[in-house]
Design goal:
The structure is a homodimer. By secondary structure, the first copy, chain A, is mainly beta. Chain A has 2 domains: about 240 residues, Alpha-Beta Complex (Sulfite Oxidase, Chain A, domain 2); about 110 residues, Sandwich (Immunoglobulin-like), CATH 2.60.40.650. Chain A has a 5-stranded mixed beta sheet. In chain A, strands 6, 7, 10, 11 and 12 form a 5-stranded antiparallel beta sheet that branches. In chain A, strand 1 and strand 2 form a beta hairpin. Chain A starts with 9 loop residues before the first strand and ends with a strand. The mean pLDDT of chain A is about 95. Chains A and B meet through strand 15 and strand 19 of A and strand 15 and strand 19 of B. Chains A, B: Keywords: Metal-binding, Molybdenum, Oxidoreductase. Chains A, B: Its cofactor is Mo-molybdopterin. Chains A, B: This is Sulfite oxidase. Chains A, B: InterPro entries: Ig_E-set (IPR014756), MoCF_OxRdtse_dimer (IPR005066), Mopterin_OxRdtase_euk (IPR008335), OxRdtase_Mopterin-bd_dom (IPR000572), OxRdtase_Mopterin-bd_sf (IPR036374).
Chain lengths: ~350, ~350
């Protein structure tokens, strides 16, 4: 299968390659196997010779750096961190059901996954470069050129400097203890836990310390939440809400949407991710549209950087049943109820309650 | 009027004194006048002689401190910060409409307000005391004894050490450039922007650097979000979600709920607060229950620590009209729709869409 992915991935686009796993596959493990990881690409996978690859660190730094892979791995302490990534377009299908979203892939709940990442801390690299502590942003660039961008340009984006200095942001060369696959950004990618996947720039080759957010198309114009009445074709740099930290989200992974089940006790499983630097505090599941809720059991260690897989058992009456799930974060904020009220022209950030429809017989 | 408050405050309780202003009063200014500020007390206002007052700083510190007011003001640099506080019970009335909440005051939208605060940074005091950088929490205590607490005890609570080290947390002796009034915590109170008001401990006299959150009743047992089915009388330490950072919220201040207006264009005004360290990104207002929205104009400077007052004009059709408002934060998260789905036994953290009912003729 293309790019080492399992045979049953849902391919949204072949070139650039964009694919997600079916729901059930994500439920199998806290750390998602590499063949099950979603892929969100904006351009062709660049062919990079690791021997010739260099990471350039510049901008507002006292000592600009140009590091080979051996230098990056040799000069800085390696760290391993388990972290979840999630695409800003995850669960867009729920928005597209409300109103059409032309030109954007109808991602289901599978544009998120969890891995252990091995790499060096961006904070350590910035310290070695003597990054100006007053600079507000750290920008990433990579050689993949997207035909989506206007004008055509290399992929890029930025994060606030305070986030960049957090020990959780890595420049990673391994994923689940295997070398980073080409489709996931080899030889080195940024990993920015708690932020939309687009900021975890793959095939990273340039880091710039600067005063302002990146003016790259994917920071200034795309990955922004426009109001419902906006014309996305007319949207320009700075319009809408810039997406960075992820909002609280969850979905149901098992049973599958549309499944036929035996009436009676059924196991329901899913994921929840608090986003930003928050933790998942509670997940509620309902078989009666939210009239009554059962608290799910949360798997895995608590923490801000990874999802919590959850499970519970609900008693299903015979007939059509809507299963609903919602998460609460560590500020006691809950997900909003309806995708209809979150609809936006580019279909980002759908964090409405999860709903699937099953029939029990 | 009691405690220097304006004549039209809504008094929820005389002893301990608990009161909030009417909606319209809050809309008048970005910085709320002192006579308009809500008061949330858990016990009698303690009579403190400023000359005898001492602030003790202990726990995991290298150099325990005991500071008089003159020493606190003389040893550390004074800072001024405009910050909004908000009670965790703000807008409880909206939850009580869903289902009764016995024993808790039915606060409207007025348990929030904004002031400029003058004081020293908690971070500077902790540095002077040589606080252990590995200690995770900073606890506050004050002499007001609450009959609500079980067993009866001094009021207290704690915040994470990382928050305590943020420059925005002050030990304040002035409010809107006036000496801190007795009912608001004279001679010195904590001001913890972005967190529930209960953490901005008034009449502060003890700070303890420690490994764990405070075991005070108001941290361990109260100010926790219980699931709907929980019996609050049976809830013990550690139950539910501990409230700390505020969740995104907003309400409508003008027109008043129940007002009769002329049909046609009407000015609608209100507030929004992102909570935690987030900013308000957008406020939408609707005269048709959320079918169509108008973006409000946001007053005042952007920033994480203060509310944004907002205003817009809507065309009101003749007849009964429901006005609805909702805010979006800088992660593109929106408020949830219905208080019914947020109901909890102690009535905390109602951040459902704002709704008021008016009649236009």
């Amino acid at each position: 299968m293309a790019w080492g992915k399992r045979a049953d991935v849902i391919v949204h686009e072949r070139e650039p390659f964009n694919a997600e796993p079916p729901r059930a596959a994500l439920a199998a493990a806290h750390r998602t196997p590499l063949d099950t990881w979603y892929v969100r690409n904006h351009g062709p996978v660049p062919g990079i010779d690791p021997a010739g690859w260099r990471l350039r660190v510049g901008g507002r730094v006292a000592r600009p750096l140009e590091l080979s892979l051996a230098e990056l791995r040799g000069r800085f302490t390696a760290h391993e961190l388990v972290a979840t990534l999630q695409c800003a377009g995850n669960r867009r299908a729920g928005l597209a059901q409300v109103r059409d979203i032309p030109g954007e892939a109808p991602w289901g709940p599978g544009a998120t996954a969890t891995a252990s990442w091995t790499g060096v801390r961006l904070a350590d690299v910035l310290a070695a470069a003597g990054a100006d502590p007053d600079a507000g942003h750290v920008a990433f660039e990579a050689p993949d050129v997207s035909r989506i961008a206007s004008p055509p340009q290399r992929f890029g984006g930025s994060i606030p400097a305070a986030k960049a200095r957090g020990g959780e942001v890595l420049l990673a060369w391994a994923m689940n203890d295997e070398p980073l696959p080409a489709v996931h950004g080899a030889p080195v990618r940024a990993v920015v836990p708690g932020y939309i996947g687009a900021r975890s720039v793959k095939w990273l080759d340039r880091i710039t310390v600067q005063d302002h957010p990146s003016d790259n198309f994917f920071q200034a114009t795309s990955y922004r939440l426009l109001p419902p009445e906006a014309d996305p074709a007319a949207a320009g740099p700075g319009d809408g809400i810039s997406l960075g930290p992820l909002a609280l989200n969850s979905d149901i992974l098992l049973p599958d949407d549309g499944a036929r089940l035996r009436a009676g006790p059924a196991t329901v499983r899913g994921y929840a991710l608090a986003g930003d630097d928050r933790e998942v505090a509670r997940v509620d599941v309902s078989a009666d549209g939210g009239r009554t809720w059962t608290q799910a059991e949360l798997d895995g260690p608590p923490g801000p950087w990874t999802w919590r897989l959850w499970r519970t058992s609900l008693d299903l009456p015979p007939g059509p049943v809507t299963l609903t799930a919602r998460a609460w974060d560590s500020t006691a904020a809950a997900q909003p109820e309806h995708a209809a009220h979150l609809w936006n022209p580019k279909g980002y950030a759908n964090n409405a309650w999860a709903r699937i429809h099953v029939t029990s017989v």
